[in-house]
Amino acid sequence: MSTAARTEPARRAEPSLTLVTDRAREAGDGREPAQRHTDESYAGVLGFVRKLADRALEDLDSAIARDPAASSRVEVLLTSPGLHAIWAHRGTHALWSLPGGRLPARVLAQVSRFATGVEIHPGAQLGRRFFIDHGMGVVIGETAEVGDDVMLYHGVTLGGRSLAKVKRHPTVGNRVTIGAGARVLGPVLIGDDVQVGANSVVVKDVPAGAVATGIPAMIRFPKRDAANQWVDPAIYI
Ligand SMILES: CC(C)(COP(=O)(O)OP(=O)(O)OC[C@H]1O[C@@H](n2cnc3c(N)ncnc32)[C@H](O)[C@@H]1OP(=O)(O)O)[C@@H](O)C(=O)NCCC(=O)NCCS
């Protein structure tokens, strides 16, 4: 045997494509790998579209639940500038996190502002079932964070008090309502279930469950209805 023949590693037989395909078919459900890949891609796209539709429906239903003047999903879909601004924001926010997406996101946010009167910076993080009633004049800054089931009326500002490029806008908890014209300024924490009165100016943290009214906002806790506090909660179900 020659030296070359001794040092050359033994070559393994490469499995033929047909063999691989056959194995995949045996191991799987009878589809070709390429077909399976295509099917999975379609399923991914369909799942994404279904999720978007479900989210849009829950936004419409939460608007109907909070706006006594709204009578149907179609009416809200066609006439709610607050909801249009929120949906536009969901797109610009996704764009904001992509490489090179920041400028297009800002431009589209500007178009949405022109159409709805609501200015939401694409960097702001908004939760689910968020609703802005009437819309006009709302401003939400870049580093604002908003929880789920929050409602703002027109003219609300979630703004900053610092020019430094740091977290400078409010963090709003879940189930918070902020009345018309209220200003919430700085990186303050607004706890869950807080109500901020119309035209109030909030510059300090507000604890969960409180009502904040006035300039600067004073905190109070709503009194429990003494007559009803022992009522069996089952009657509300
Ligand atoms: C703050 C708010 C949630 C309080 O509701 P509430 O708990 O039912 O409070 P009450 O109406 O019982 O008022 C309690 C006290 O707060 C005062 N108050 C209520 N809202 C206030 C406000 N925005 N600014 C200053 N004081 C206010 C009341 O005058 C009352 O004072 P008093 O105890 O000295 O009489 C409500 O008044 C509010 O401002 N909601 C926003 C609604 C809105 O923006 N609507 C726009 C529709 S287009």
From TrEMBL:
Biological processes, Gene Ontology terms: cysteine biosynthetic process from serine
Which pathway, metabolic or otherwise, does it act in? Answer: Amino-acid biosynthesis; L-cysteine biosynthesis; L-cysteine from L-serine: step 1/2
List the catalytic activities from the record: L-serine + acetyl-CoA = O-acetyl-L-serine + CoA
Please provide the record's keywords in A-Z order: Acyltransferase, Amino-acid biosynthesis, Cysteine biosynthesis, Repeat, Transferase
The first-level EC class reads transferase
Query: Its GO CC terms?
Result: cytoplasm
Feature: compositional bias, Basic and acidic residues: 22-38
Q: Per UniProt, what is one GO molecular function of this protein?
A: serine O-acetyltransferase activity
Question: Has keyword Metal-binding?
Answer: no
EC annotation from Swiss-Prot or TrEMBL:
2.3.1.30
- Identify its protein family: Belongs to the transferase hexapeptide repeat family.
PANTHER family associated with the record: SERINE ACETYLTRANSFERASE
Q: What is this protein called?
A: Serine acetyltransferase
Originating organism: Intrasporangium oryzae NRRL B-24470
